[in-house]
Amino acid sequence: MKVRKLKQRPERVLYTRRCWGLSGSGVGGLIALLAACIVGLSCAITVDIDPDTLNLYNNEGNYITAYIEGPFDSEVLFADDFELGWVDQYHGEWKVVQEPGTSNHVFQACSVAPYRGTTILKGDTSWGDYTVEARVYTTDTYWGLIVRADSSGATFYSTYLNTVENVAEIWKHTNGMWERGTAALDKAGPDAPAIDPNLWYDMKVVVAGSKIDLFYKLDGAADYPAIPQASAIDAGYGSGRIGLVFYDDWGPDKNNYVPAGKVGWFDDICVTAASGTVLDDDFESQWMVVPGGNGKIGQWIIEKDLTTSGAGHSLDWVYSPVPAANIEEISVVCGDVSWTDYALEYKVKISSEQGGVAREGSAFVRADANAHNGYLVHPEIGGVAIWKLVDDGSTGTWDYINVVPKVSWPIAQNTWYSIRAEAVGSTINVFVDGDLVVTWTDTVAPVFSSGKIGVRLGADARHAHFDDVVVKAISNDLSLIDVSSLKMYLDDVWLADAVPEPATICDHDLDGTLELMVKFPRADVVDNLRLAGVTGGEIELTIVGESTDGVGFSGSDSVRTIAKGKLKL
What we know:
Helix content: under 10%
CATH superfamily of the largest domain: Exo-inulinase, domain 1
Number of domains: 3
Shape: globular
Radius of gyration: 28 Å
């Protein structure tokens, strides 16, 4: 018998997670993410275990045979978990946004009442002598860079540009943002250029031994001045992380902060030491914003999620659309139009903002360059649907065909779910938290055989968070299965490892589909089932493994067990 079932690999056999660090420099580069590793859903394989009936009192004989049939996940084509690596945020709000009127992305800070300032840190506390550079901009008063911050973010030096007094300044902090010396280490009014809000500046801070030098210039100017605009000597902190600081001094009552929409922007942050570049962030995205159904373009941001509910999700950075009324569609795409058979995995939390209706957390598969043609997997509150996009030839508009009306499924608002959309041949399969909810085969031209992936949100100020996007190629090439990685389990109880030989590719049931035949030591399986307390009845055995690219999969088969005969000691 065969059972095709998608399930998580047992926790005890999760393999070392693979990381995909995305790097780049300059406005046009890839976003510089020192990304945390991504573990997506485990791909399902079809498993047929022979014999169908297993005598628990017979541990003689050589092997139990399993036949493994694809398709299965192989090469990872794309991964993005949106992690920025910036941590220990002190109050305020930080997010990656698109600079108005440009395609450039920046790291934006703003204060949140009742606190008038915010800091955020990154790097290594072992960093001693280094130079940090960044482009900086503010609509308010004080903003700048932090150097030599400790592991708790309590002690550090801050270097400000002060628009109120037109000075560059260096401060020593002894217990967080608000605990600093009664006087600045240095507070100098430079000759030029003036420090004004609403202008981009280049800023450089050099820490060497006990010396701290602050330089700045108008963005794009050829060189920093030869003499630092602020300089200090202090032996208090010899090493530490870098950080960013924004201080909002708006309002007549400084002890009763009222938000006024003031922001600070940071971009192209680079830290160099004697060993070379140790940090490089330009905050650019791999995703391309595409026009919605009415030709309008929305904005996407990377922001902190404030919930930990659902799908094993934890508090981290996520990808979100900016809710905006009357935007018919807010979409982004990435990847390659040449991708054919693949699985898109992502996490989504559907919510609403600005009085909008919580409805969807959709994703494109096999989309063309601008998502005018392709398939739209549509998880929504209460179920899952599939739409087909076919360009109707009109500028800014195209046709949506609801090929699979909503299939009822308990998807709730403000809860994280793991979605897996498989595009194999002309068939689309959609899983929610490991359960197959929708399967559909396209038989009406045009049938899309390749394309990009993307994520999408509709109109009416709807909102959703997206995270942990992974695209894996789906293959039927059984030679890509790493036989040495195959293990057999009963739930989370290990039973046996596959033996390297014999392992052959064959068509044992003569159905025209090839299977990989692998064998497990019978004595190990039977003895460990008995130790697990199995005395008879039907059980489900699971085989887990990896492709040669290190991508995990699992599959299960139901086997009858009997207890008869004599136990041989």
